[in-house]
Structures are given as structure tokens and as C-alpha cells.
């Protein structure tokens, strides 16, 4: 990270060499000096988890503890420490009045967002304890900390954020995607179960393209998630997206055999579908045969890898 010719202070901060950093400061090194790509000593120390160096730097009167240097992403030392889960450094930074716990980077993401994204529940708890953060603040793409934690399957962070009781558990991104939608897409069944048990979560909400959590889970072959969603009375198993595709047709097109069987076992499933052009159908007899094939072994399963989509006049 450090460019050739960097000062001893930058080198000591990056590598956790307290003695080198202290000596450099005593000799008059600029505490706000930067690498060629905009990293200050404090940013380097916070990034790499060097608490002793951070303490040394924070003790200096002329330090800007909230400076993002000239980083392209505008991350502050707190953002970097939160991203990497450095709890001790997060505590040190949050103890200062000149550090904004809710600072925004160039994607409008806060330190809490970064902690939630990486699953650092203790760091997220420390930030929340300041009482000075927007728990449900949205980034440039409309995602909240709960949404990104759900997308990445961080169960502890999801529970922590929901426990604040000040967020919308069904907030939508720019594409209309909720925390449940993201959890379903990535097969995070534990998070899906938590969200389904949360008041205010719509289990059958549609995104910009009309896809529901069930549809996206079926498309990606997440059987456990599909099973959880099918158990919800409010979920329509035949819901069509804007292209006329149902959860079953998504599963067939992507050759998700286990999900196909699960959907077909659900009595309300309609195995025929018609797309928005009104020309492509999935024959009910083909699907009934596919159900039998998927329950068998050996060469017959080769059939399942070739969805039988065809045109009817």
C-alpha cells in the first residue's frame, strides 16, 4: 500500500511500529502527511488494526481524527476500522467528539453500514450505542444496514438492528428489493426465518421487475428458503413477474431440480406458464414427467438438465 519514498511515520503507522512512528513525530513529521494514494498515518493504523499507533496519533493536538485523507472512497479512520472489525480502535475513535459516527463515504455508506456488511456485530453495537447514527439510513442504491446484513447472511447483526425498533424491516432499495428479498436470493435461510417472524415484513413483496422472494429463491435453487416461504399464507406460489415467469418456471429454466419437486408437491402450483409475449409455454405433462424424473437416479436425470420449453401456435 505504501508508496516508495513514504515517511517513517507512514511506514510505522502501516506496520504497527510504534517506536518508528513516535521518533518520526518527535523529529517534526507532519501528522497529516499522506501516501501517493491519499492514506494518512491514522488511516493506515486504523486499517491495519494497530491500536498502539492509533493511541499515539490520537494523543496529538493537531490531528484531524475524522479526515478521509484523499481516499477515492472518502472512508474515514472509523469507517476503515469498522470495515475490518477492529473493535478496540473503534472504541478509541468513538470516544472523541470530533469523530462523526455517521459519516458518509462516496456511496453514502456509514461506518454502521460497513460493519453490517462484514458481519461485525460487536462493532455495530458500539456504533449504535453512541445514539448518533441513522440506523435505517440508505446508501446511494437505497440499501440500509439491515438490507446488506440480510444479503450477506449476518444473523447476529440482523437481530441487533431489528432490536432497535427504529428501522423499517421492509425497506426497499432503488430496485424495490427488501431485506427479505436479498436474504432469499442468497439462500440465507436463518435470516429469512428471522425476517418472516418480524412484524412489518411483507413475505410476497415484488421488486422493480415483479420478482418476489419466492421467485428469486426458486431461481437460485435455495430449497430451504423456498420451503420457508411456501409455509407463509401470504405468499402466492404462482406469482408472475413482469415477464410472465413464475417461481416454478424460474426453477425449471435454471435446472433447480430439488426446488422444482418442492414446488410441484405444493398442490396450488400451476405447472403451465405463459410469458409476456404470449408464446412460450411449459407443458403440464412435461412437468409431471419431470417430477418423476427428478425423484429417480441414473441416466434419467439427464433429462432434467434440458428444460423442455417450446412454442405453441
From TrEMBL:
- Output the Gene3D superfamilies linked to this UniProt entry: Ankyrin repeat-containing domain
Q: Name one Pfam family in it.
A: Ank
Cite the repeat ranges for ANK.
37-58, 175-208, 209-234, 243-268
Q: Give the UniProt keywords, A-Z.
A: ANK repeat, Repeat
Q: Name the InterPro entries for this protein.
A: Ankyrin_rpt, Ankyrin_rpt-contain_sf
The organism's place on the tree of life at top rank? Eukaryota
Name the PANTHER family for this protein: ANKYRIN REPEAT AND PROTEIN KINASE DOMAIN-CONTAINING PROTEIN, ANKYRIN REPEAT-CONTAINING PROTEIN-RELATED
Q: What protein name is recorded for this chain?
A: Uncharacterized protein
Organism lineage reads as: Eukaryota, Fungi, Dikarya, Ascomycota, Pezizomycotina
Amino acid at each position: 500500500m505504501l508508496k516508495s519514498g513514504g515517511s517513517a511515520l507512514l511506514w510505522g503507522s502501516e506496520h504497527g511500529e510504534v517506536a518508528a512512528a513516535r521518533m518520526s513525530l518527535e523529529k517534526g513529521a507532519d501528522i497529516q502527511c499522506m501516501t501517493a494514494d491519499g492514506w494518512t498515518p491514522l488511516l493506515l493504523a486504523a486499517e491495519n488494526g494497530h491500536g498502539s499507533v492509533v493511541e499515539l496519533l490520537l494523543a496529538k493536538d493537531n490531528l484531524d481524527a475524522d479526515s478521509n485523507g484523499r481516499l477515492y472512497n472518502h472512508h474515514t479512520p472509523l469507517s476503515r476500522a469498522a470495515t475490518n472489525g477492529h473493535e478496540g480502535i473503534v472504541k478509541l475513535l468513538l470516544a472523541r467528539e470530533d469523530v462523526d459516527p455517521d459519516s458518509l463515504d462516496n456511496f453514502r455508506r456509514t461506518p454502521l453500514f460497513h460493519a453490517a456488511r462484514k458481519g461485525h456485530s460487536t462493532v455495530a453495537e458500539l456504533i449504535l450505542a453512541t445514539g448518533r447514527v441513522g440506523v435505517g439510513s440508505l446508501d446511494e442504491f437505497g440499501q440500509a444496514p439491515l438490507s446488506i446484513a440480510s444479503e450477506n447472511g449476518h444473523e447476529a447483526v440482523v437481530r441487533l438492528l431489528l432490536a432497535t425498533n427504529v428501522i423499517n424491516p421492509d425497506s426497499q432499495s432503488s430496485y424495490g428489493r427488501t431485506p427479505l428479498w436479498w436474504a432469499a436470493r442468497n439462500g440465507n435461510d436463518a435470516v429469512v426465518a428471522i425476517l418472516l417472524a418480524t412484524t412489518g415484513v411483507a413475505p410476497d413483496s415484488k421488486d422493480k421487475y415483479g420478482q418476489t422472494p419466492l421467485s428469486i429463491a426458486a431461481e437460485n435453487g435455495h430449497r430451504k428458503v423456498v420451503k420457508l416461504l411456501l409455509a407463509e399464507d401470504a405468499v402466492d406460489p404462482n406469482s408472475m413477474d413482469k415477464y410472465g415467469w413464475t417461481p416454478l418456471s424460474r426453477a425449471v429454466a435454471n435446472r433447480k431440480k430439488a426446488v422444482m419437486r418442492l414446488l410441484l408437491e405444493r398442490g396450488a402450483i400451476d405447472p403451465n406458464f405463459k410469458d409476456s409475449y404470449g408464446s412460450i409455454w411449459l407443458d403440464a405433462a412435461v412437468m409431471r414427467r419431470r417430477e418423476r424424473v427428478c425423484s429417480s437416479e441414473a441416466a434419467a436425470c439427464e433429462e432434467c438438465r434440458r428444460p423442455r420449453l417450446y412454442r405453441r401456435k
